[in-house]
Amino acid sequence: MKTHLQNFRSLFKKFRMATFLNVVGLSIAFAAFIVIVMQVKYEYGFDRFHTNSERIFRVDLPANSGGGVFDVILPRPLVETVLQSSPHIEAGTLVNPFNSQVYFSVMDHGEKRGFKEQIVTAHAEVTKVFSFRIIQGEEHCLHDPEKVLIPQSLAEKIFGKESAVGRHLLMEEPVWTKEKTELVVGAVYKDFPGNSQLGNVIYTAIDPAFAMDNWQASNFLCFLLLDTPESALLVEETFNRNFDFTKIGKEEAQIQLTPLHDVYFESAHRDQRILRGGNQESILLLLGIGLLVIIIAAINFTNFSTALAPGRVKSINTQKVLGSSDKVLRMSLIIEAVLISFFSWFLAILLLGFLRQTHLFTFTEAGIDLVNNIPLLAGTALLSLVIGLLAGLYPARYMTSFSPALVLKGNFGLTPKGRQFRTVLIGFQFTVSVVLIIASSFVHIQRKFMQEFQVGFDKDQIAVVELSGSLYVEHRETLANKWKSYPGVEDVAFSSEKVGGQDTYSTSGIDMNDITIPYYSIAVSPNFFSVMGIPIVEGRDLSLADEKSSGMPMILNKQMRDKYGLELGLMDFRFFMGNIIGFSEDPKLTSLRLQDANYVFMTGVPYPLQISYVRLSAGTDHFAAVDHIRKSVAEVDPAYPVHIEFYDQIFNQLYQKEDKLSRIISLFSALAILISIVGVFGLVMFETQYRKKEIGIRKVMGAGIRDILVMFNKIYLHMICLCFVVAAPIAYVCIRKWLENFAFKTPIYWWVFVMAFILVATITMLTVTFQNWKAASANPVKSLKSE
């Protein structure tokens, strides 16, 4: 081993640049691969941390079996019936996912402090179905209706190092599924990891009688803990056979149990506020990039080791003359390669540790967690040994395959098989580089397409402020007048939900001509359309008189009118009679992942419109306006934690998964391309060493530097052309498949393919020219003499 380490140090000393590039390329590849696998593990590990995760199921009413607009959101009576339907159900709970952040306060040394946090109501058995790790208090405290469970992070945020158990939370606005307004912390649980459907929120028990007899209001998710995973089919069949689905108006409906492990990828196109979802194709694409990065790095390792042959083969053959066998020499070279690979892995771990401290990888949800990924690190360490072994086999065999006499003559190294092997390796790198450039380009183009898409409302000068229910009910006019007193504020409107910032809204339907027309219902103030800049195309706009009207005035979007032949006037909306007074243009209020939806905007509703839209004049100082808005709210309620957003922030949140994917793919694609170019550098170095005599002869025969550089560039240009022919259709198929995840998407532009070809060709030509310039400029006499 001592001899191998000495050879290892000698290699670094003698071939500094080549070994440096080799180690750097491998280290970056290992670091990138580890980060990617951490992210893939994070995505596929959703909810698997629960002790009984394989026995937890969600109850669905799939649309293709009559569930329609209900789907995964169920009426409470149906949930309660399911929970009592089978002895195979060990525990079950409903979860109300629609409670938004609630304003509450605590008393801290006589001072009132305000917070906004999400409160989720559920059955007390939620702690039996899911794995809550209790740090303080009693796990089953939710059997007491005034008790709440809070996460450790929130306990520390509110109470610091003091115990949170027994502390009071005063609800400054009602929780709509619970009557009590003063709650008590019964227990503190350890925060769930990021890859969980359950949020780190406040949990409390739903009121026993709330909506117990309402079969039409679908507001709840239902989760079951079964005795065995195999019982799911029996529970489904028993319930579907015995339950009367006409109670929910869907005679042909049937429930379906979805394993908790499948919920994440199944929910890719659902409202991310209710269920978190991920795109499996995107994750596989990311994993593919990780594998390509490590494969390219291994190819580079092989090419570089082979490129060092001219400088090492004489030394190796001298050892053969002195009695060393091919077997011993090859083993020495392989061990040397393994040591380089392992050293590169070690540097990668150090690099990741540094990056973790600098927080540069915040765009990956998994982050860089080395401590909790020891098996992964051990696996990649083993992978480094395998890569070193495989990458060292060919160079070891190659450099020991020449007879001493042939080496002394200098006529080795350019055997047809050897050149073919190296050409195939570098060709693979070119192909991968072209595919990755095209893929990352379209991911970026789609991201920009989403950001610049015309959403159908004037979003650029609007500040969005979320109020509490009590602030809206008691101080709406006061706040609106205070805000409008600022010279840069034109008007203020209100709505029940944050339009343009989510994928679903309050859902309902109209029964007409034997079909159900689904629509999103959004309550708005009368001036909503003028403030948001949404044109009315038929009928009239809402007015102040409509807000006090008993006839439920409403405006529908044009798509709903055209698709279903709706007209102005009274119409039966299943639960009430609505008065359609107008039709608007079709605003795009959901993400581009989804098709255009039907919208019903109504005014005069009896519940708070907590989302306010403050329209600013063009040229207004946004920072000053935001400061004025904050001060105005503080004058009314100093404890209220006001939060103000503009639509660029809202859209960034809406498309955060696409944004993170874009940055991840762009970064690692750039790394793969960089590693490929380093591989080209190594191959050109190899070719140049072996063709010095040919270059010298060509110069003696009259060839200039330009002629020699053109000769070398033509070789690689032909190779790039061939690789592009292979890469282009592969990239096209991959991109077309990925874009299928969006209802609105960018065209597949031909010029992106041309750009990828030009970029790879340009970088390669510059690399080839730079590497061959010295050989082409050298004195041909000196070159021929040395040869």
- Total helical elements: 24
Structural class of the helix and strand makeup? Answer: alpha+beta
Major sheet description: 7 strands, mixed
* β-strand number: 23
Mean pLDDT: 82
Descriptive account of the structure:
There is one protein chain. This protein has 787 residues and is an alpha+beta fold. 50% of the residues lie in helices and 17% in strands. A hairpin with a 2-residue loop joins strand 15 (506-512) and strand 16. Strands 15, 16, 17, 18, 19, 20 and 21 form a seven-stranded mixed beta sheet that branches. Helix 1 (2-14) packs across helix 10 (326-358), helix 2 packs across helix 10 and helix 2 (16-44) packs antiparallel against helix 11. The protein has 24 helices and 23 strands. The longest helix has 37 residues, at 416-452.
Summarize the structure.
With 787 residues, the chain is an alpha+beta fold. Helix 2 crosses helix 10 (326-358). It is built from 24 helices and 23 strands.
List the helices and strands and how they pair.
Blueprint: H1 2-14, H2 16-44, E1 56-60, E2 74-75, H3 76-83, E3 89-95, E4 101-108, E5 111-122, H4 126-129, E6 134-137, E7 147-151, H5 152-159, E8 168-171, E9 182-189, E10 202-205, E11 218-226, H6 231-242, E12 256-259, H7 260-266, H8 280-307, H9 309-321, H10 326-358, H11 374-399, H12 404-409, H13 416-452, E13 462-466, H14 469-484, E14 489-495, E15 506-512, E16 515-523, H15 528-532, E17 536-539, H16 544-547, E18 553-557, H17 558-564, E19 569-572, E20 577-584, E21 599-602, E22 611-616, H18 622-636, E23 644-646, H19 647-654, H20 656-690, H21 692-700, H22 705-739, H23 750-777, H24 780-786
